[in-house]
Amino acid sequence: MAKNKNLIYIAISLVVFIVLAFLYSTPVFTGKQLFQHDIVQYRGGAKELLDYRADTGKETYWSDSMFGGMPTYQMGSQFNGDIIKKIDSKLNFLPRPVNYLFLLSAGFFLLGIVVVRNWKYALLGATFFGLSTYFYIAIAAGHNGKINTIEYFAPLLAGILLVYIRKQYIWGFIVTTLFMGLQIAANHPQMTYYLFLALGFLFLSELIRGILKKTPMKHFLISSGIVAASCLIGVGMNSQRIMANSEYIKETVRGKQILTNSSNTGGDSGMDKESMLMWSYGKLETLNLFIPRLMGGGSQEPEGKEMMTKIQELVQENVSSQAEYDRISKGFGNLTYWGDQPGTSGPAYQGAIVCFLALLGFFIAWKKYRYWILGASILTVFLAWGSNFMALSDFFIDFVPFYNKFRAPSSILVVVELLFPLIAIIGLYRFFTDKTLTQEYKQKTLLYVGGGTLGFVLILLIFGKSLLGFHTDNEKTYLPPFLLDYLTDERFKLFRIDAIKAFIYVAIAVTALFLVLKQKLNQNIALVIIGVVSLFDLWTVNKRYLNDDNYVDKIFAENPFQTESSDLMAEKVQGNPNLEPILANVNVNKTLETIAEKDKTHYRIFNNILGTFSETNTSYFKSSIGGYHAVKLRRYDDVINEYFQIMDSVKVPNILNLLNAKYLVLGGPEQPQAMPNPKANGNAWFVSDLKFVESPNQEIKAIGTINSKRTAVISADDKKYFDGKPVQADSTAFINLTKYQPNELEFKSQSKTPQLAVFSEIYYPHGWKFFIDEKEVPYIKADYLLRAVHVPAGNHNVRMVFEPEVIEKGKWISLICFGLFIVLSGAGIYFLYRKRDKRQMEKI
């Protein structure tokens, strides 16, 4: 009976999560969809991939849409035999973002049930975790892969704790394996990596407990073996994705450096430290977990508009010289954010009550949870400081495997946002139910933690201006006193409002706990009070960053690259900052569409209006020189940094010709101009002059100055390729593209002499195969980033096709691992039922 009752409560809890998710996302009822910046960019960059899939029913693992061409492994490609991804899709059945909000809460609810075995505390913890502000900021930005991965943090930890703490080996294996597989399928390795840094503390805790004989060492070894097997099988179910990405990453900005310069040495692995640590959380900024606007909210808060208006008035009234105006301009950054990061969409707010209860939990929770959660929390906070704690960051970058593959260390705070709600509900559960804790100890701990927390807030309210400053060093240097005073006063007001709220929320929680201790308040009522106040707190803060303004009509969400404007569109766009770029870019999009419709051959467009290397409008209509992607191929990124940071009027056109930029889009958004580039090299050309160079640095320098139509720059390492392959000039020779698909290109060639054909296609050493008259031949790299092949004299058919072997190998490994999971899970469940039946028979 009790079991059935619990099942009913669990079902009700899941319904509550769905209801809350829909209530938060009410615009979905009217058919509106989220407008997410990164998803808009994805729609443009993945257009060729999506069109190919729709037209052929097949998958292409290469697309020419962005950056001259790149693998699609991180552009939304699908893998045959990827069963675990299909399960992920089924779990995300609700409309976005309702699916994310539901699964975040439901996953933590499972964790809470495993840890405290009580649905009430699990429900409370699920709201703590599911309403963490950072998740809502990430959803608004379109970081769907990140949120999809975080969805499975809590249930994966639940599976591991089932094994280590609950000693439920079979169910623990099933849950751990399933959610390990789902987490990898969500495809955000950085988030998974950060989680496992934290889980290392759990492993050490269990090892120490085994050594101290708090738990049998045999249990620790069995548990570790089960968890290791679960993780391996979970990873194995994603072999296609992992193997393809592993192969790809080596050739990207996350892989080895190629060039040697002042900031890196060729062969060094990972990103340079400056790029890695650019988004580092400030030490004081960490308190944003407790008070959302301690260092400001997002860079673009609504209050910023009013502040800017007042600043402009003050400048007009007090500034009389251009020199003073120029000095003031140097001092301005983000009005509503004054932390250490270059900018931010909002704070990683965890909730005042959650932080208070987490602090209480570190004194009251069971030791088997307390120490590893504390250690993991401290480490992740320290790592989030990044460039503000270089001793630790340097150590991890230099010595901890794979750490240097990831940027934006501030995002590691997602681990804290998992662990604080967990230790909070453990502490709260033990505070209310554990009879081994004396009334005196509970009261004393509550007095110290509650009083200390409230006292800390009061100190900030009284002495905050002198302690926190509310300005940056740059602002203090350049802004005159009348502006600096106004800015600090307005920022202090923003902080004060949130600090007072934090004081009130914590005071309510402390009072509720105290009254329960004095038996003047029912425990369940106290839980409801804490839950409702925390829900109100997080809900209202989250609405600053993900609200009704983030939802737009379906037509804008699914086709953000509009080519026609109208009064109706202007009316719908008016006042919505998310949609304003759509209207602003209509003329540019129309120009791109016109080019693509009039010239259907294969070529690229250089768009110099929208920010060449931070937009995918161009890619939506035609192959682009630029694009938007965090993991570009290293060689292409090197060329961008070498030539496009400073627009040399001679060298840049040479590079554009090399990349077959047949059209240039110049001017401004209102009156864009499409200019043909008759000097573009075309899709392929023959060269007879080979310029051998000794180093990658010489190679990349040379391509900006040579006549690339006649000369190819070849690495000295490839000299042996030309053994027995002479190259001779023939003014009548030609090679023309006859068939184009993103993963297969065919050319017809004619020449009286042997030639080296250079293709305006990006070199990638894995998966591409060349065939001359259907006989496979080797190819090399030319001009630092292009493909080239030796073509004998005569008439020939030259074909290149992208058939990465890693896809087929990974497919079979994925299927085998998934099959192994099913077999082992089935056997385990069968064993459990046999064991149960045996016990029942013995009772009879």
From TrEMBL:
Keyword Transmembrane helix recorded: yes
Transmembrane segments: 7-25, 98-116, 121-141, 147-164, 169-186, 192-212, 219-237, 348-366, 371-392, 412-433, 445-464, 499-517, 524-541, 812-833
Top-level taxon in the UniProt lineage: Bacteria
InterPro entries tied to this protein: Uncharacterised_YfhO
Entry keywords, A to Z: Membrane, Transmembrane, Transmembrane helix
PANTHER family according to UniProt: INTEGRAL MEMBRANE PROTEIN, INTEGRAL MEMBRANE PROTEIN-RELATED
Protein name: YfhO family protein
Organism: Chryseobacterium gambrini
